[in-house]
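Quick look at the format.
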Amino acid sequence: MKTIDLIVSDLDDTLLNGEGVISPFTAEVLRRAIQRGIRLVPASGRTMASMRPIVEPLHTGMPYIGGNGSEIISAGHTLLEQLTLDLDTARDICRQMAQRGIYAQVYAGDTFYYGAECEASRKYRRSSGMRGVAVGDLAAFLDFPTPKVLCVAEPEEVARLQPLMNERYRGRAAFTVSKPYFLEAEPPGASKGEALRRLSRYLPIDPERTLAFGDSLNDLSLLAFTPHSVAVENARPELKQAAAYVCGPNTQDGPARFVLEHVLNDAESR
């Protein structure tokens, strides 16, 4: 593998383990990579408020990517750029989901807003650490720009709705999937791969010297950015097919072990 000077990685189900945290082993490998001058840029579907507690202890000194590419965040945890959905489009998406009985939420700062308290809102609050507020009619409530609308449904319904919503909102929003039950509406141009291209205005990025890790459909553009693309073993089949390499699962520190062997050239194990 050509010399790597930038590692870009998804978080959930990729860099984070089965408990949703970065393991001590992975943290140590990343620390060693950073010490050797390799830059680390996390790229997640999470927004900045949810990413910061995960990213801050890594001490990357680098900007990072949130909201599936709608946010570029500084090393000091402030927004450098944010793409948002057109307000009428976001409201219409919320109405469409409400008519189908599907949970939806929108974002502003460290808070997410949704119609009514339910298991989906409680679970998201626990996993993200963000503040959640029930507002009743979400479409009527929404009067501010949001970087995405996240919808929660059964995986079969998410798979059915994604192409339908992409067609309905063509040119106004793009729908992707992170977890099998998350359907995420993003502003046009808000993908992780496009965010990396935008990030190149702030730091030099060479695709030939970039290593990227991912697990789901929202990582396809990220893996397409570089020839050194890696899907974790627990990734969706589409990711494994698109990736140049497949590493171990997130539950076994797959990305860190790949970095140890192929980037740091040190195959030591625990």
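Next, a different chain entirely:
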Amino acid sequence: MNWLEQVTILDLLVKGFIVGVVVSAPLGPVGVLCIQRTLNKGRWFGFVTGLGAAMSDIGYALITGYGMSFMDEIIIKHQLVLQLAGSIMLLCFGVYTFRSNPVKSLRPTSSNRGSLLHNFLTAFFVTLSNPLIIFLFIGLFARFSFVLPGSLIGFQLVGYLAIVLGAVTWWLSITYFVNKVRTRFNVRGIWMLNRIIGVVVMIASVIGIILAIAGKSLS
């Protein structure tokens, strides 16, 4: 493997990791459920909840990537335009995240902890029931030029594994944080955390828009 190929793989790993974190971070129903279970059942019950969501997300990521792979010619010719469109979509997502109130997703918790597998499966199917996540993947894949026309299957799998790694890292981090501050973490904490995530996504999106307008590619 030459130096250029190593840099390309590293580039794909970084992009995939970022995609995995961004997809997992907003506190939708599963994110709030993860926090609830961490507080009420323990850190590992919260983590397997996030892991279930991550496994569902990677399924939608594969569907999105497979669909976009048929647009080889468009991706190659209009890369910067697609990056601009992807950044705009992410900006809209960031605004939506900032303005949303995840506290509305709070549900009464059961006194029965259930098994780790049960907690995993419930989160998996809750996330699977929201196919709109595909639009977020389309925006992210376009922004980061994640789908590379003509690349080998093994090379593509590296990117998808990086998405899983990013998602797992996020869920490990958030459950660790919530577990550490469990005595001080409340409803307002969930709301503030979601707003911070929204701001970060918006800032990153604006930077992406500026780079695309300036003709700077992230590929």
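DSSP finds nine helices and no strands in the chain.

See the schema section for token definitions.
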